[in-house]
Amino acid sequence: MTNTGPDLAVLDELQQRGVRHLTHFSASRNLPHILAEGALLTVDALREANISYEPTDSSRLDRRTDAICCNIDLPNTRYFHVAKGKINAHNFPDWVILLLNPALAARPGTGFAPGNAARKSGREIRSGAEALAALWADEAAGERRRPGHRAGSPTNMQAEVLIPGRIDLADILAVVLPSGVRVREERARLHQLGHDPDRLTWRVSRGIFLSDTVASAIHMGTKVGMAPWTDRPEETPA
Q1: What pairing do the DSSP bridges indicate for beta strands 160-164 and 143-144?
Q2: How many CB atoms lie within 10 A of CB 188?
Q3: Residue 198: pLDDT band with limits 50, 70, 90
Q4: CA 163 to CA 223: how far, in whole Å?
Q5: What is the DSSP string of 108-166?
Q6: Which of 22, 24, 72, 205 holds its CA 20 to 30 A away from the CA of 117?
Q7: Once rounded to an integer, what is the mean pLDDT over residues 212-222?
Q8: What angle do CA 182, 154, 203 make, to 5 degrees?
């Protein structure tokens, strides 16, 4: 009989590591279809439903178009910088970072990659609690863990979790943007398109979008500021 329940060993590993959320970055123009579908969909599901979307990675050398690529704790800003520079991103330059329920990583069929999942055409992707624990190894995909390394972050900042199937709105813990102004802009855009932005929780963090800030937080344990969004003027967390 096929097990369709969560992998309890993976859940235990996540708890021991203190993982509070997964992250997924996306072009903000994808938010309307996420609300319309009530979920973040895989590339396979988007194509099957003939839904127009803005791909973060059109190549998908990991060969897992049945899964949604995520990072643990903090986003892979190294690849984020690459994605923002691609030609198709120039027409839609605005991005969001989604914070996701870490329990999604315990879904059967979830893959764990110690570095970028596209390395070796996805051949480094493994499943199970041991594969998850390996993301915190002293050395992972060519990078070494440092003495002050952030406890909840994998050794390699590009380590990935590949979640098979859709991610429902209930598992999207928050949408993060770099300023309160950007939150108001996205909420207004959703209103204009007939969607209720209050179905999502909104947070503000400038630092989570900055490569140097995220790298420092991972390698030296420094703080990345983040605050709940409120509809009033505020200082943007660093």
Answers
A1: unpaired
A2: 11
A3: very high
A4: 27
A5: TT-EEESS-TTGGGGTT-B-SHHHHHGGGSSEETTEEPPTT--TTS-SSTT-EEEEES-
A6: 205
A7: 94
A8: 20
The mean pLDDT of 31-55, rounded to a whole number, is: 84
Q: CB of 99 within 8 A of CB of 201?
A: no
pLDDT of residue 87: 45
As given in the structure block, the two tokens for residue 44 are 């396979």
Distance, CA of 69 to CA of 55 (rounded, Å) = 12
d(CA 187, CA 102): 25
Residues with Cβ within 8 Å of 142's Cβ and at least 6 positions away in sequence, in order, are 115, 156
Sign of CA dihedral 64, 125, 132, 220: negative
Residue 39: which of 48, 50, 30, 28 has the closest Cα?
30
Provide the percentage of residues in the chain whose pLDDT is more than 90. Answer: 70
Contact 102, 19 (CB under 8 A): yes
Average pLDDT over residues 50-64: 63
What gap in Å lies between CA 204 and CA 224, rounded to an integer?
A: 11
Report the amino acid identity of residue 104.
L
